[in-house]
Design brief:
About 45% of the residues lie in helices and about 0% in strands.
Length: about 150
């Protein structure tokens, strides 16, 4: 079984890692700073929670088999792939408040039922709650590793 944000222990670990992150943490790959990464994860959480609409984009990730592999099996490349444009809208403002806002969204994720209707992903299309749970856990882990936490 893959880690999922529907597991309270996985969410708690992600939150603990976020709290160890500092705004000046050096990146191991990619172009984002730690504050930009926090804003990026906040955009992704806003999208999956239905707080902000997404603009559908054409992508091979919409193919069911490719989507499944990307979410559940294939490791993501470091610094080579780019998420949907809607996942890069928010700009960092103030570290503590930005981090609190992200943590609140992670906690709110745990109140949702994986069986209910979830928003589509801009690149991957139709997503079940189970898919979002694994995708969020994988996405957070990817970026937290990027900053060594």
């Amino acid at each position: 079984m893959r880690p999922t944000f529907f597991d309270p222990a996985v969410r708690a670990e992600a939150i603990a890692r976020l709290r160890r992150l500092t705004p000046s943490a050096p990146r191991r790959w990619g172009k984002m700073s730690a504050p930009q990464m926090v804003a990026h994860l906040t955009d992704q959480m806003s999208h999956c929670l239905g707080d902000t609409p997404c603009t559908p984009e054409r992508s091979y990730l919409r193919l069911p088999g490719v989507r499944y592999l990307a979410i559940y099996w294939v490791p993501w490349p470091k610094g080579r792939s780019r998420g949907p444009a809607d996942a890069f809208l928010t700009q960092p403002v103030e570290w503590d408040s930005d981090l609190r806002a992200l943590i609140a969204k992670v906690e709110r994720f745990g109140t949702r039922d994986p069986a209910e209707r979830w928003p589509d992903h801009a690149l991957m299309g139709r997503m079940r709650g189970e898919d979002w749970g694994v995708l969020c856990a994988k996405h957070f882990d990817h970026h937290l590793r990027q900053f060594g936490v």
